[in-house]
Write a structure and sequence with these properties.
Strand order of the largest sheet: 3-7-4-8-2-1-6-5
Strand content: 5-15%
Largest sheet: 8 strands, mixed
Shape: elongated
């Protein structure tokens, strides 16, 4: 019989070739869900043993739990297989943290783009649907002691212990790998590639719209690159963008996900990317995106020309940055904020008239390394360019101390372009 769903606060990390999920479990949930290895694998053959058998030492640990007020355990390392465990990322909003902090003496929290991405991908919730098989890889004695202790003392139900989950495969190779893990403190769980989510997810509305656009929308059907990263080779002369950048465009335009730490309106991001909306609303969203692309391609000369020739030279510095992921990221970020401020027309006019290439001294100074000739694509520089354009559009926003420092270092004003 399946157990109830369990939602656990979680950190995701990686060490070596293991992905692992660090969480907290209440003693009652450990007792109810975690099995000893012999409970799962009945064979006594040495090759199938993942961990040594539990000895009578667990009795001593039970007494320790019952009688020691300063009790404390190391983390349990738990193997998990079967069921449908799901990882849900958090999105960290520093603006909300700073606004609602109850500590008046707390310093302003400012995350650069790399830090923002790191926190967003590392913090989340692990949801277990109840069908999973969970067993102790390291910490069998502690697990057995917890099981026995909560039977004897219900006051221990709500005690918490740190746990580290790793994905186990119930095969010869999996058993070997899990035995090897005995000497480490990590866990493995291969994350789903973003490109795979876009290709198959039927709950993520942005993914659904992305698929429909590349399959049905006449403007994009033949000019979107399918690959697992955001990058586009300089040798690619026929693609406008790739499917991951397109997905990000859609999720940015339609949701309330912060744009370079600026709060925006839209569908709640987490809900929109995890719970399918009704078909009529989905179609309306798709039409909104299609109409925006029509405006973009009709208004911006380099893109209009590309539709006619279906060729682009990404090696040429005079080629618009809109044919690179960094330029597209800036475009849809500016458009999102401009739309929120009723300045879509002004934003389109800017990109329509602007030489948005490395031949423009402003963009060259921001993005080109003169010594190596390579383009610097850091999110910090993208954010600076984004903010410059917002200033040109007379859209007000709050600069962080890091932003102010960057403006001083670049010494570029809106009068320079």
């Amino acid at each position: 019989m399946s157990k109830k769903r369990l939602k656990l606060p979680c950190l995701k990390g990686k060490m070596g070739d293991w992905y692992y999920y660090v969480s907290l479990m209440k003693f009652k949930d450990v007792a109810d869900r975690v099995s000893m290895v012999p409970d799962i694998h009945k064979s006594k053959k040495l090759s199938n043993l993942i961990q040594r058998e539990v000895s009578n030492r667990s009795t001593e640990i039970v007494e320790y739990l019952k009688n020691q007020d300063q009790r404390f355990f190391n983390s349990l390392i738990l193997g998990i297989y079967g069921g449908k465990p799901q990882w849900h990322e958090f999105t960290i909003s520093t603006s909300e943290i700073n606004e609602y902090s109850e500590n008046e003496n707390q310093e302003y929290i400012d995350l650069n783009e790399e830090e923002q991405d790191y926190f967003d991908s590392s913090l989340g919730i692990l949801v277990l649907n109840g069908d999973e098989k969970i067993f102790a890889i390291d910490g069998q004695h502690r697990t057995k002691a917890i099981q026995d202790a909560v039977k004897a003392d219900s006051e221990l139900f709500e005690e918490e212990i740190a746990t580290i989950f790793v994905a186990h495969k119930n095969s010869d190779e999996g058993l070997e790998r899990t035995r090897r893990l005995f000497s480490t403190l990590n866990r493995y769980a291969k994350p789903v590639e973003k490109s795979e989510i876009i290709a198959i997810d039927e709950e993520d509305n942005a993914a659904i719209i992305t698929r429909r656009l590349v399959e049905e929308f006449y403007l994009l059907k033949e000019i979107i690159l399918f690959r697992k990263t955001r990058s586009i080779s300089v040798n690619d002369t026929s693609s406008f963008s790739n499917i991951i950048v397109l997905y990000d465009f859609i999720s940015t335009i339609l949701t309330d996900k912060d744009v370079f730490n600026i709060s925006v309106t839209g569908y709640p991001y987490k809900e929109f990317t995890r719970k399918r909306i009704d078909e009529k609303t989905l179609e309306d969203c798709q039409i909104k995106i299609q109409n925006l692309f029509i405006e973009i391609f009709n208004r911006i000369p380099p893109l209009s020309e590309f539709l006619k020739t279906t060729e682009v030279d990404r090696r040429d510095r005079s080629t618009s940055l809109l044919f690179r992921p960094i330029g597209q990221n800036i475009l849809y970020s500016v458009l999102k904020v401009a739309i929120d401020h009723n300045k879509k027309e002004e934003a389109l006019t800017f990109f329509e008239s602007q030489n948005f290439s490395l031949e423009n001294p402003v963009w060259k100074k921001i993005f080109l390394d003169d010594e190596t000739g390579r383009i610097k694509t850091t999110k910090e520089r993208q954010k600076f360019a984004f903010q410059l354009i917002l200033m040109k559009l007379e859209i007000k926003f709050k600069k962080s101390p890091k932003d102010i420092e960057l403006f001083e270092n670049f010494d570029i004003s809106i009068d320079d372009f």
